[in-house]
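Reader question, answered in our methods column.
A reader sent in the components of a multi-part assembly and asked whether the whole thing could be modeled at once rather than chain by chain. We filled in our standard form and ran it. Here is what they sent:
COMPLEX SIZE: two components
ENTRIES:
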Amino acid sequence: MEKKMVEQITSMDVDFAKWYTDVVIKSELIDYSSVRGCLILRPYGYAIWENIQKELDAKFKELGHENVAMPMFIPESLLQKEKDHVEGFAPEVAWVTHGGSEKLQERLCVRPTSETLFCEHYANVVQSWRDLPKLYNQWVSVVRWEKTTRPFLRHREFYWQEGHTIHATVEEAMQETLQMLDVYADFCENYLAMPVIKGQKTDKEKFAGAEKTYTIEAMMHDGKALQSGTSHYFGDGFARAFEIQFTDKDNQLKHPFQTSWGMSTRLIGGIIMTHGDDNGLVLPPRIAPIQAVVVPIAMHKPGVREKAEELTAALKAAGIRVKVDVSDNSPGWKFSEYEMKGVPVRVELGPKDIEAGQCVLVRRDNREKIAVKLENVAEEIKRVMDELQAALFNRALENRTARTYAAKDLDEMKAITAEKSGFVKAMWCGDEECELKIKEEAGLSSRCIPYEQEAVGEVCACCGKPAKHMVYWGVAY
Amino acid sequence: MEKKMVEQITSMDVDFAKWYTDVVIKSELIDYSSVRGCLILRPYGYAIWENIQKELDAKFKELGHENVAMPMFIPESLLQKEKDHVEGFAPEVAWVTHGGSEKLQERLCVRPTSETLFCEHYANVVQSWRDLPKLYNQWVSVVRWEKTTRPFLRHREFYWQEGHTIHATVEEAMQETLQMLDVYADFCENYLAMPVIKGQKTDKEKFAGAEKTYTIEAMMHDGKALQSGTSHYFGDGFARAFEIQFTDKDNQLKHPFQTSWGMSTRLIGGIIMTHGDDNGLVLPPRIAPIQAVVVPIAMHKPGVREKAEELTAALKAAGIRVKVDVSDNSPGWKFSEYEMKGVPVRVELGPKDIEAGQCVLVRRDNREKIAVKLENVAEEIKRVMDELQAALFNRALENRTARTYAAKDLDEMKAITAEKSGFVKAMWCGDEECELKIKEEAGLSSRCIPYEQEAVGEVCACCGKPAKHMVYWGVAY
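And here is the structure of the entire assembly that came back:
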């Protein structure tokens, strides 16, 4: 009995949202649990996250960061110490009120983010300039009791890393904030093949408690924006609220300066919506759990299975993450299955191939077939993977370019969004009132004030007063 | 201004408990948070955990296990599905009752362990014999609202891995249960240098919901026992309670068989209490975050610092986890600091050494000094580390041998425990009544029924009836 054929998924042009859900479920990335919004990362989904963790963690450590683990619980009084922060997060936290059968004296929230916990710890361990900087990171899950949830993009519990650093000077802290945004941008572009726009959030969109928030914004295949990573500069606001002080070299007691920065499992949603197609996932080779799958053809013929396994062992030894499927499912089933799973390269090997001393590589994105000599397979797969990695990035960049519009005024913004989906570049005076009006009338939120400014006009697209910044506007996940 | 000298810690012979707390705090493994029993793993403590994770995770994967991530919340009704399980855990869970400002319709507990969540998922994804086995693991923290807590040994929130597997047959599931206990034992002995006794728990001491629990028991320096890892065989009890069924090859609908197994951050407590001394931590080289520290002597002299840094780079290139301390603290301060931190090998390098083309290695446990030629340092350090690793294991084994006693009856057991601390081997009839009486009168709990049986008598030490097993009894952390 063969496993049933891979079911058809909804076409992305018919219903992008449905296509997305079909893909995350049928490629076995995720399963639902009985708690709404708390999802199960299945082995294939978690393996992508492990690859993301491995690369980022190595980079963080290379830059001098150390991993720690803070508690998952924050006492209510601790959460309340920084005013803006508690206002931003208290409405959406999960509260623990009982331990066993006893009511707690003070209720505890499950961390929605851990600034307050790090601050409490800093107050204990930072006394002198010699104790600075502390460059910390942790890999944990956090909880935000969202009303609307969506696989990878918005969970009530999601996995992330949160970096938290504390410095003696403003300059050092700012430098860290910007450095980590660069690390995020490089990672998205080089590993996930997701082009991003680096910029600063407006005050309205910045993190609760931050002085400045920097962001990388990616565009999904459907033209919507995905905030993919943020890096926050806190100044000494938290240090003052938590009474963190250090004796500086000049023997003066001072408040230190802080940052935090995070990326999460929503990146996996980003990968899916940037690169996927109607056959399922398309994974960038650098992050794919399985980079190549060997599918034996006519496996019942003598020597085929053995040759396929031998080839697999050779590819593994060459450093390729490879799998061979010797199950009794048909080759056709296997083709669909690994296309659904977004495996970058399929390696077909049948009796005629073996006779000719070759095999056939099939590239996931364009299904290009290449016959290669068996002695060259490993290097050919690597070459195909490099090409695929670059092609995915370029295709995403082309999509973004094609879907990025410029508008001079609110009418133009409305006209664009009525017909199209994408980024709208428009000038802004800096007033929150105009930002709110653009949101209300054109349905666009400010994505960021990009580093790369460009004068698409001279006055604010909303009020006509002198413009301060060019802003990317969009509809965000 | 130099950092203050490393403070004296309490001697372990004076007060072992106080010595332990001094070590975990002063070697900067842990800090307290404002939630009692929820501790902060500082960089040095977390780095040990990362090394433990790295080794175990590789071993799990080599044996075919895959990592997943289950939610941290369990609805009350889900926790209640398996009767023994809920009775064991419900009294000590933390309950979430509110999300934001709204009261939840059903309260959720923070996982104390995740059998129920895995079962719910299995019921979704296991239909046919082709879906079996599932060999899963996750690295997470869990919460148990304990009344008494102690760094590493008993936290309200602690870090662990929990393996969960599901199989088509009893034999496969039992084989997995025993295999994982062997993995744990090998890891403890070969990496942590902690000798362990493998055995089975009595029914009284087994995991809530398990048919059989296997354990590895280590002896700490003070003679007390540390349960260091457990592996559980569930039979089909959970599968029946959660209605997990699969169609077998014979087309019959059957219940599958399950296991779970876990090791936690309490292992770090085990390392401390097995190997530590009055100068602080002593870390087994295979798990030490810093395997060697280079301390320049007379660092102000020309060329010393440069030579120390050059040596450090060479050691790093040779695969040694090495650090150089070029701070302006005195060599004496550095010696104490890295002894406190349990760094296996200190490398002293001063002007005279440089002149003689040598440096001095100091082994952490016995402070043995060895002058070695600079061209041989890397291999000499590796040799010293191997010797240290073996010496730690042997010393711990000698301690256990010296502190293991045999007793024929309850009076002998009481006489031993009145004067000594250690394991007592005694025969047991298998009745829980005798187990309870031994606990009450001699203060000893059953640690395990060891694989390696030995007839220290013919009748139960408690009731005099025919004995079924030889049991290790002890006082446990």
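What stands out: The first strand of chain A starts at residue 30 and ends at 32. The two ends of chain A are 42 Å apart (CA to CA).
Send us your own complexes using the same form.
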